[in-house]
């Protein structure tokens, strides 16, 4: 079974609660899917972030659909894309080209399927490289990232990358529901949204998620 076949077998296509313009292949149970993923590969796997619409990503997607001039006609990078929600929203908002980057091969497969389901496969290009390695900043107009501050190590790597991009002149927006490793002091809040959640994914029926940008590019 290929990664694409696995995604189709273990998810169902459904609208995103806070961004109903977008439909994604979503899972119902994170633990069950995680176990199936490890059984499929025969080895330890990261959590299947690609199979859920997380609060930070929903906030960024909602923001750019409501304010499409942020991405219209521009090149966009959706970093740690997961399901591709933010990338697809950018494409629907009029972006010229969107790179949906994630190192998880299942995420790359999910992005491909989700872009096709939303009629934007020609605009969204999946990318499986580790872009955080090395000092370079991305050669794009806009960098979007949802739910990337989920661990201490990853928060530090992501913040450094986002700040380098902002310093190079890229418009940078990140979405987060106030996780423990969110570097508040280095970011400025652009907007806030009360995002409805499905089931117990975020341990709440609604999460307050903010859209932020680097406060002082370095």
How would you sum up this structure, described in words?
Helix 1 (3-10) crosses helix 5 (105-117). This protein has one domain: Rossmann fold, CATH 3.40.50. With 218 residues, the protein is of the alpha/beta class. The strands form two sheets. The protein has a seven-stranded mixed sheet. It has a two-stranded antiparallel sheet with strand order 1-2. The chain is 32% helix and 26% strand. It is globular and about 45 Å long. Strand 3, helix 4 and strand 4 form a beta-alpha-beta unit. It has six helices and nine strands, in the order H-E-E-H-H-E-H-E-H-E-E-H-E-E-E. The mean pLDDT is 90. The protein has helices at residues 3-10, 30-41, 55-66, 85-92, 105-117, 152-167, and strands spanning 12-16, 19-26, 75-79, 97-101, 124-127, 142-146, 171-176, 187-196, 206-214.
Keywords:
218 residues, alpha/beta, Rossmann fold, seven-stranded mixed sheet, two-stranded antiparallel ribbon, 6 helices
Strand order of the largest sheet: 5-4-3-6-7-9-8
Evaluate the radius of gyration. Answer: 16 Å
Terminal Cα span: 45 Å
Low-confidence parts lasting 5 or more residues at pLDDT below 50? none
How many strand units? 9
**Globular, elongated, flat, extended or rod-shaped: what is the shape?**
globular
Percent strand: 25-35%
CATH top-level class = Alpha Beta
Give the % helix.
25-40%
Please state the structural category: alpha/beta
Q: Count of DSSP helices?
A: 6
């Amino acid at each position: 079974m290929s990664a694409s076949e696995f995604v189709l077998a273990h998810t169902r296509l459904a609208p995103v609660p806070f961004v109903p313009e977008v439909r994604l292949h979503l899972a119902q149970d994170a633990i069950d899917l995680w176990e199936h993923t490890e059984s499929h590969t025969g080895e330890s796997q990261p959590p299947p972030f690609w199979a859920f619409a997380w609060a930070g990503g929903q906030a960024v997607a909602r923001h750019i659909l409501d304010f499409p001039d942020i991405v219209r006609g521009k090149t966009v990078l959706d970093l740690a894309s997961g399901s591709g929600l933010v990338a697809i929203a950018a494409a629907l908002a009029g972006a010229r080209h969107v790179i949906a980057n994630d190192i998880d091969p299942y995420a790359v497969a999910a992005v491909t399927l989700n872009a096709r389901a939303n009629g934007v496969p020609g605009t969204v290009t999946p990318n499986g490289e580790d872009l955080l390695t090395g000092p370079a900043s991305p050669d794009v107009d806009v960098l979007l990232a949802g739910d990337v501050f989920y661990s201490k190590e990853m928060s530090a790597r992501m913040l450094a990358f986002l700040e380098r991009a902002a310093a190079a002149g890229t418009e940078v927006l990140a979405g987060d529901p106030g996780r423990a490793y969110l570097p508040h002091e280095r970011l400025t809040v652009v907007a806030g949204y009360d995002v409805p959640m499905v089931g117990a994914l975020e341990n709440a029926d609604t999460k307050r998620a903010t859209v932020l940008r680097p406060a002082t590019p370095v």
